[in-house]
């Protein structure tokens, strides 16, 4: 008599072992996943080395993808600019005339600043950048705002170094690998940058809101002196960020500050500069009061 076509696993010891090991592997995998998830919540720094190794491995592919993305974006911009060139010409002429006036004023202010810095004995030379690299990727949908930089220890990058573009401050280096680094963007909720209003130096703090904007919190409470379209720059307080770097522009006022839009959008930024950490000069000792005879 022929054996039945549908036999249970109890008839075969090999089938029993296969089922047992598959269940055991599933249980072990689930337990390992729970353990790794718990460690990522309570000790996230333990995975920094793994993240940097993984970033180094995928760095060539990320650079190739970023280059292709930039090329396609430039092509679309050229096509769009062809259709809008006529309507933008008159507007550009007006802006050029206004820019010439502002340039003359800026040159006068620059001459005055140089004279004052010379009187104070301050250096007017810009620091040399540590490295120039490409932002290969950035988080857009995550609750964290991080980016990957195509430079690491091989180019002298260290933790805490500021990262900026031609438009303004981007963030600071969070973790450094051999050939890549992770950058904490200024829009992240754990980023806090001392800033001031560019035209008169009103001090404040810029904290990332996690949605691509910054929350500006004034240091001195009272009447809110900020206005829409105010430009904010780094103040240099506490070191790390060099003073005068553009950060954001105010778009909405709040009770204790404002909401600002960052000037250096990571999604539109190709190449960035890594600067050395800023160390404020030591305070000059004040002269002792004259003795009373």
CATH superfamily of the domain at 132-274: Rod shape-determining protein MreC, domain 1
CATH architecture of the domain at 132-274: Beta Barrel
Question: C-alpha Rg, in Å?
Answer: 28 Å
| Overall spatial form | globular
Helix content: 25-40%
The spatial strand order of the largest sheet comes to: 1-2-5-4-3-12
What is the CATH C level class of the domain at 132-274, in words? Mainly Beta
Could you describe the largest sheet, including whether it forms a barrel? 6 strands, antiparallel, barrel
- Number of E-type strands: 12
Mean pLDDT over all positions? 79
Low-confidence stretches: none
Please tell me about this protein's structure.
A six-stranded antiparallel barrel has the order 1-2-5-4-3-12. A six-stranded antiparallel barrel has the order 6-7-8-11-10-9. Among the domains are: 65-119, no CATH class; 132-274, Rod shape-determining protein MreC, domain 1 (Thrombin, subunit H, Beta Barrel). 35% of the residues lie in helices and 23% in strands. It is built from two helices and twelve strands; from the N terminus they run ααββββββββββββ. The protein is an alpha+beta fold and 293 residues long. The protein has helices at 13-42, 48-120; strands at residues 131-138, 146-149, 162-164, 169-176, 181-185, 192-197, 203-208, 213-218, 231-234, 246-253, 257-262, 271-274.
List keywords for this structure.
six-stranded antiparallel beta barrel, Thrombin, subunit H, 23% strand, six-stranded antiparallel β-barrel, globular, alpha+beta, 293 residues, 12 strands
How would you summarize this macromolecular structure in one to three sentences?
The chain is α+β, with helices and mostly antiparallel strands and 293 residues long. The protein has two helices and twelve strands, in the order ααββββββββββββ.
């Amino acid at each position: 008599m022929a054996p039945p076509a549908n036999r249970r696993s109890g008839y075969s010891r090999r089938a029993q072992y296969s089922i047992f090991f598959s269940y055991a592997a599933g249980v072990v995998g689930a337990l390992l996943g729970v353990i790794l998830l718990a460690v990522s919540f309570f000790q996230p720094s333990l995975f920094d080395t793994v993240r940097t190794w993984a970033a180094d491995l995928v760095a060539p592919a990320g650079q190739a993808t970023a280059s292709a993305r930039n090329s396609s974006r430039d092509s679309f911009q050229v096509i769009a600019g062809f259709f809008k060139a006529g309507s933008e010409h008159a507007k550009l002429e007006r802006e050029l005339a206004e820019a010439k006036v502002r340039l003359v004023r800026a040159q006068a202010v620059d001459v005055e600043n140089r004279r004052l810095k010379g009187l104070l004995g301050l250096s007017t030379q810009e620091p040399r950048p540590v490295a120039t690299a490409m932002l290969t990727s950035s988080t857009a949908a995550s609750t964290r705002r991080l980016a990957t930089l195509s430079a690491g220890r091989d180019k002298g990058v260290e933790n805490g170094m500021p990262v900026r573009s031609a438009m303004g401050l981007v963030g600071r280096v969070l973790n450094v690998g051999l050939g890549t680094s992770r950058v904490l963007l200024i829009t992240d909720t754990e980023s806090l940058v001392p800033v001031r209003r560019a035209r008169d130096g009103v001090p404040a703090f810029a904290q990332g809101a996690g949605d691509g904007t910054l929350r500006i919190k004034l240091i001195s409470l009272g009447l809110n002196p900020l206005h829409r379209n105010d430009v904010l720059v780094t103040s240099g307080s506490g070191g790390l960020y060099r003073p005068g770097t553009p950060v954001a522009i105010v778009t909405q006022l709040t009770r204790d500050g404002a909401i600002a839009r960052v000037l250096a959008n990571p999604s539109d930024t190709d190449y960035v500069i890594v600067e050395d950490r800023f160390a404020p000069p030591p305070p000059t000792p004040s002269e002792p009061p004259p003795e009373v005879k």
